[in-house]
Amino acid sequence: MNLKARLEQRAQGKCELCESTEAISIYEVGPDSATKEEIAILVCNKCLAQLQKKESLDKKHWADCLPRSMWSEVPAVQVASWRMLNRLRHESWAMEALDMMYLDDETLEWAKAEGDHVHEGEVDLHKDSNGNVLQNGDTVVLVKSLDVKGSTLTAKLGTVVKNIRLVENNTEQIEGKIEGQTIVILTKYVRKQGA
Length: 195
Prior knowledge:
Blueprint: H1 3-11, E1 25-28, H2 36-39, E2 40-43, H3 45-51, H4 59-69, H5 75-87, H6 92-100, H7 105-112, E3 140-142, E4 146-147, E5 154-155, E6 160-161, E7 165-166, E8 173-178, E9 181-186, E10 190-192
Helix pairs in contact: 5-7
């Protein structure tokens, strides 16, 4: 039996955090353990996007599921629940849940390993000059003429850049092609087309 089948059997085919049955995938809580099965949980796409900080936190969603998932007997589910509760610690219900939650020393050390508990719950997303969230594949329009470094190319105001790619670790930058040349563009100089 492969890992996903074992996890589905353990989770009864549901997200181990919110119990949704739609679009379930494996999420590794990490950082390390003896086996993948011990550090992996099944989650729905909504939980996955928010765990990975690719979507803003939906406080109602977590308020409905974390007070239940935190009592799981699976350490990886406990760790994921504890981390999400800490990201939401400014909510009274999350603080109350954290006060009630018990993790043994080893599991608590694992939960703290990524340092997520010391950061605010807000998620940094790629946003255009108007605050619209950008995604890979979007089309944007330049709101300022830009000189391209290392080139004689000038990207003019109003230039349309199709099929952008988000720069992974910098929410202020995207990549796009202008006149066949891939360049890095600051998000503050673009407007999402159609937004």
